[in-house]
Amino acid sequence: MSNFPGTTVDYKWADIGNARIIDLPGTYSIYPKSGDEQVTVSTILGQKTGFEPNKLIVVADASNLKRSLLLCLQVIDLGLPTVLALNMLDVAAQKHIQVDSVELSKLLGIPVVEINARKKQGIDLLEQTVASLKTPTKIFYHINPAIVEFLEELKIVINTGNIYKDLVMAHQVSNASHAKQNIARVFSKYEFETGKLQARETVERFKQIDEILIECITKTAHVTDRSNFADKIITHKVWGLLIFFALLFVMFQSIFWLARWPMELIEQGFDSLSSFTLHMFPNNMWSDLFANGVLAGVSGVLVFVPQIMILFSLLTLLEDSGYMARVSFIMDRLMRSFGLNGKSVVPLIGGMACAVPSIMATRNIENVRDRLITIMVIPLMSCSARLPVYVLLIGLIVPDTQVWGVFSMQGLVMLGMYLVGFIAALLVAWIFKLVLKQNKKNYFILEMPAYKWPTINNVSLVVWSRVKIFVKEAGLIILCVSVILWFLGSYGPGDNMQQIEKKYSQTIYKDSSFAQAKMQAEKLEASYAGHFGKWIEPAISPLGFDWKIGIALLSSFAAREVFVGTMSAIYSIGDGEGHQSLKHKMQAEVDTLTGKPRYSMATVWSLMFFYAFALQCTSTVAVVYRETKSWKWPLLQIIILTGMAYLASLAIYQGFS
Amino acid sequence: MYLSELKKGETAVIEAIEADDLVAKLFEMGCVPGEKVKMVLVAPFGDPVAIQVAGYTLAMRIQEAAKVRIRKDNFSSQKIKL
């Protein structure tokens, strides 16, 4: 039952034997206050999965039993077979709190099992208890005399056979924007106010809980929490901010430096695999599709796995230790000036690796407007897919020199591009703040969990599940787009393609790798992708881009880093020559109209800003649609971000030249 | 007096929450009338703040704290238990 920023926001399930076990996000009560809590409540009520769970395990923090029991009592009153798993007894013992679980079980009317989730103790007993679990023997909910009539009439429209469940359902419906007419009539007749009713119920339940706790809890001494001392430093106005920015810097560095090796390995592996395929199998459409479409796509997906793994390991470490809640705490005031809130910070940091999981991580922001603004600006944070694009472009225009003997000039420009993304995110958020009205539920109330040591077990579990989600969901889209792009790049209208192939099949060209590469370039120009590039050229030439960059822009919609690969193909670079030669080719390219270098300062800066702002990521669009449940926001996001990119590039190119 | 006026280290008892949209949330977080609270942390720009309540630490903004009516608890700050 935890609810700190960034922890579980969706339900996970596993089938064991003929049973399905579902792990739900933490919630403080049966009345959800945020998106992740809503997931839990809908699942318990059977709205999410279409069936009610047969049995429930409520995991409670023994060191903080009072709050944990609120949900427990509510769940008992729903009438579902429930067991209370009492966790963190060791922490409770440190605080000199003893819990009598036998007495607790008697008072609650359900089994209570002591467990230690970290050390995996008591799990066997929990399993046995679940196997023989029965309906709770007690009911705690007393129908308030003031709402007896309301509940009676409610039965006509909502009748689950359990009066408390009817009420919970009614609260759920009142939260939805449109209640069915007959239910809405009952609500207005009895002036149903969800907030007031919940408050009254909560107070009554806490009274009952106090009575229960007096019987089964003994406090031997009062000690101050160790967390308090750490918090004095971590939330300090100077040290707190310094520690936060230092941690960010270390995280940022390690994502790039640690991931470089495995990323190169994956790329090289797939390159050799695809050239092996082309050598082993007859040269036809299928081997080409497999090597250049499918394998390229799979490699484009897997190449991000190292970065995602490192990022999520670090983020999970910080979350599990309890630090992330402090980050939200110290950054809230600053973020609020920009229409965001403290809980936006973690997803924004995550956006530097990948926008897709970060957008999902916004679910624990209760405030609808703040959550929406956070989702809208996350793609402006420079994600890892922009990195290879920046590397190539910065290499073109920035000399490889040192500043003050320590910093590399190129590295500083790179850092500058990350800052550009971050500042743009804040500015756009601020504009949204002016436009979007604040809704009623505007508060920032957050539990600051006690600091604890993260366990390797949990970190690896989280990382594994993130990687799986990425490979499965984002991977499928990237793969599809890669195959489509392969088609657009390999086929063209009419018989132009065949004629180019025929021309280069003459014997004088046979053994020249230069001619073969030139053929590829000509084929690309004649392909559908080439036609597309020519078609959009008038629109992008004010930005300093030609049709070749146009193709790269199109292909970037699969994943931004495809830019580099597409440029390589366009500039007819054979395998194994790497970026160096692509860089030289691009530097040597001349603008046919002006006779000046094609990749002037103006064009490259314009291109970099285009990549900094434009929403060129199919996976992001898909996940924004899923999270906002409407096409309105992803479409608006495409228009705003890509519009910004266009205008910024236009201003830069026209200003420079 | 309101929670927002409480200084770091001071303790008080919650009397009521004077905002309809906050009551349900703050109650379920354990901030029910009669509960003891202690101001423990203030964020870098003076907002949000964090209190100790029901055995854990809870953060909220000044604007939320300004809706929590409290009664100063002079006895416990002198460590005298009645």
Describe this structure as you would to a colleague:
The complex is a heterodimer of chains A (657) and B (82). Chain A has 657 residues and is mainly α. Chain A has 30 helices and 10 strands. Chain A has helices spanning 35-44, 65-77, 89-94, 101-108, 123-131, 148-157, 163-175, 181-189, 194-216, 226-234, 239-280, 285-302, 305-321, 323-336, 345-350, 355-360, 368-377, 387-397, 409-435, 456-490, 496-504, 507-510, 513-526, 528-540, 547-556, 562-570, 578-588, 601-613, 618-628, 632-656; strands at residues 12-16, 19-23, 56-61, 82-87, 97-99, 112-114, 217-219, 402-403, 407-408, 445-448. The longest helix of chain A has 42 residues, at 239-280. Chain B is an alpha+beta fold. Chain B has one domain: Ferrous iron transport protein A (FeoA) (SH3 type barrels, Roll). Chain B is 21% helix and 35% strand. Chain B contains 3 helices and 5 strands; from the N terminus they run βαβββαβα. Chain B has helices at 20-28, 62-65, 74-77; strands spanning 11-17, 36-42, 49-53, 56-60, 68-72. In chain B, strands 4-3-2-1-5 form a 5-stranded antiparallel β-sheet. Residues 77-82 of chain B have low confidence and may be disordered. The A-B interface holds A 28-29, 31, 33, 63-64, 66-67, 70, 95, 193-196, 198-199, 202-203, 206, 225, 227-228, 231-232, 235-238, 240-241, 325, 328-330, 332-334, 342, 440-441, 443-450 and B 17, 20-30, 32-33, 40-48, 50, 54-61, 63-64.
Write the layout of secondary structure elements.
The complex is a heterodimer of chains A (657) and B (82).
Chain A: E1 12-16, E2 19-23, H1 35-44, E3 56-61, H2 65-77, E4 82-87, H3 89-94, E5 97-99, H4 101-108, E6 112-114, H5 123-131, H6 148-157, H7 163-175, H8 181-189, H9 194-216, E7 217-219, H10 226-234, H11 239-280, H12 285-302, H13 305-321, H14 323-336, H15 345-350, H16 355-360, H17 368-377, H18 387-397, E8 402-403, E9 407-408, H19 409-435, E10 445-448, H20 456-490, H21 496-504, H22 507-510, H23 513-526, H24 528-540, H25 547-556, H26 562-570, H27 578-588, H28 601-613, H29 618-628, H30 632-656
Parallel strand pairs in A: 3-4, 4-6
Antiparallel strand pairs in A: 1-2, 5-7, 8-9
Helix pairs in contact in A: 2-9, 4-9, 6-8, 11-12, 11-13, 12-20, 13-20, 17-19, 18-19, 18-27, 18-28, 19-28, 21-23, 23-24, 24-25, 25-26, 28-30, 29-30
Chain B: E1 11-17, H1 20-28, E2 36-42, E3 49-53, E4 56-60, H2 62-65, E5 68-72, H3 74-77
